[in-house]
């Protein structure tokens, strides 16, 4: 991961660290590595989303481990410098700054932080469509609903999950959401 971190400009690396800290503090549901990767690539850096996700996971592990062990900023920086493959100087500076500013907040929230073990719902979009025809059938006129769920997994990676439903399936889906809403109102 250290070799790939060298490629990332300091401002993007700082943004990634900030998002990870916010995620660990449960202020945001996850890190949108796809969007960040696209912006980094637009700036001229050759990095893929898989490498950026690995870096995000490594940093998340680093910050959460440092919080669990209640490391000071200097202890964290010393630990980073003693590794087999030391991090680039700009990365250590960013980590030092972010940990110094927000590290203690993780240490406080980390005690209750293991409650989210299944991921988190972020957003939902839907659209109504009609299949007009296909290669095998000239006149379908078949209505359907496409639903896209945006979710953050337990590591904080944000992904989209899409599926299609018939109108009766969508009505059942909607009915279940109404039931959930009415139950939540009683809580």
Please give a structural write-up:
- The structure is a single chain.
- With 187 residues, the chain is α+β, with helices and mostly antiparallel strands.
- The chain has seven helices and three strands, in the order ααααααβββα.
- The protein has two domains: 1-105, no CATH class; 120-185, Nuclear Transport Factor 2, Chain: A.
- The protein has helices at residues 2-7, 10-24, 33-42, 49-68, 73-81, 89-109, 167-186, and strands spanning 120-131, 142-152, 158-165.
- Strands 1-2-3 form a three-stranded antiparallel sheet.
- Residues 109-116 have low confidence and may be disordered.
Number of domains: 2
Number of E-state strands: 3
Number of helices: 7
Strand line-up in the sheet with most strands: 1-2-3
Largest sheet properties = 3 strands, antiparallel
Low-pLDDT sequence parts: 109-116
Q: Averaged pLDDT, please?
A: 82
Give the terminus-to-terminus CA distance: 45 Å
Shape: elongated
Rg of Cα set: 22 Å
Helix content: 40-55%
In sequence order, what are the helices and strands, one letter per element? Answer: HHHHHHEEEH
Determine the structural class based on helices, strands and strand pairing.
alpha+beta
Q: Report the portion of residues in β strands.
A: 15-25%
